[in-house]
Amino acid sequence: MIIDTAKFIREEEVFWKELEKMLDDIERTHEAAFFTPDSIKRLHYLYGRVSDDLVKITTLSGEREVRRYLESLTSRAYSCVHSRKGRIKNFGFKNWIVNVFPRTFRKNIGAFYVSLAATLVGVVFGGVTIYSDGTSREAIFPQQFAHLNISPEERVRQEETRDKPRVEGRQASFASYLISNNIKVSINAFAFGIVFGLGSILMLFYNGIILGAVAIDYILAGQTYFLLGWLLPHGVIEIPAILIAGQAGIILGRIVLLPVGMGKFQSLRVYASDMTTLLCGCALLLVWAGIIESFFSQYHWPVIPYGVKIAFGCLELTGLILYLSFAGNPNTSVKKTDGAINAKQ
To answer: Rounded CA gap, 190 and 314, in Å?
Structure first.
C-alpha cells in the first residue's frame, strides 16, 4: 500500500485532535451528562478511524513519533470505551434517567407533536359525538370500559356511597393488570407505525376519541370535579406515556416512508436506539401510572377529597413537563463544569 505521508497526516490530524480533545474532556470533567447518544456515536467513529490510521501508519518505518502518538491515543480511547468503571459511571441507569431519556424525547419532539395532534383531533371528535348524541356511549367505549356506559350521575353515586373501592384487597393485582394492559397498548401504538406511521396515528386518534367522549359526558352531567379527581392522578402520566409510544411509532413510520442515508435498513440502525429509549421510558411511566391508578385514583370522596387528588395530579404534570423539558440540558452541565474548573484554577 502506497501512502502520501504528508497528505495522509494533514487530512487525518483533524480527527486525531478531535478525539484527543474529547478524551481530555471526559478525563477532566467525569461528567456523565457528556455522554449523549450523538457524542457516543462520534466517539465510536473517531476511535475506529484512529485505529485504522494506526494500522496504516505502522507500515511507514520513518513515522515513529506519529505511530507512538496514535498508539497512545488509541489506548486511551480503548480504555474509555471498554473500561468497566467508565461504563458503570457514565452509562448507568441513573445517567439514562437523568440524561438519555429526556434528551432523546426532545431530540424527536416533532414526532411527539404529531402524536399529540392525532390524539387531540380524536378528543375533539369523541367530545362532539357525545355532545351530539349522549346515547352513543356503547358504540364508543370498548368492552373493558363497560362501567362507563351508565350515566355519570349514577357512576358518581355508586363510587361515593360504596363502602370500599372496587379494587379493595386486590390493588396489587389490579395495578399489574393496568400496567400490562397499558404497555400492550403502547407497544401496539409503536408497532403499527410500520404502516407508514398511519397505524400509530389511528390508534392515538381512537384513544383520543375515548378520552374526549368520557370528558364531555361527565362535564355535561355536571361531574367535572369528580372527573378531574378520578383521571388526573394517573392520567397525567399515562396519557403522555402513550403519546411517547406513539412518538416512537411515528419515527418508525418515517423510516419506512422517508429513509435517510443508504436506505431503510441504515435508517433503522440510526434511529433504533432512540425508539428503544422512548419505549423504555414509556414503560417506566406506565408502571408509575398503574400504581397510582390502583392505590390512589380508585379512592373517591369522602375517603380522599377531590381537591387533594387534583392537586396531586397537577404536581405530577408539572414535574413531568419540567423533567422532559430540562433534564439533561447540556447547557446546564457545561455551566456547572466550567464553574468547577474555574474554581480549581
So the answer is: 27
Distance, CA of 97 to CA of 199 (rounded, Å): 29
Rg (CA), the chain: 27
- Which of 41, 69, 91 represents a domain boundary (last residue)? 91
What pLDDT score was predicted for residue 293? 93
Rounded (to 5) percent helix, strand, coil in the chain: 85, 0, 15
Residue 302 corresponds to which cell in the numbers above?
Answer: 369522602
341 — pLDDT class (breaks 50, 70, 90)? very low
For residue 337, tell me if it sits in a domain.
no
Q: What's the length of the chain?
A: 345
Which backbone phi and psi does 170 adopt, to 5 degrees?
Answer: -135, 35
Regarding whether 110 and 65 lie in a shared domain, the answer is no
Statement to judge: residues 163 and 82 lie in one domain? no
What cell was used for 35?
455522554
Q: State the amino acid at position 137 in one-letter form.
A: R
Give the domain extent around 27. 5-91
Residue 212 reports pLDDT greater than 80: yes
| pTM of the full structure | 0.71
Residue 2, classified by CB atoms within 10 Å of its CB into exposed (0-12), middle (13-18) or buried (19+), is: exposed
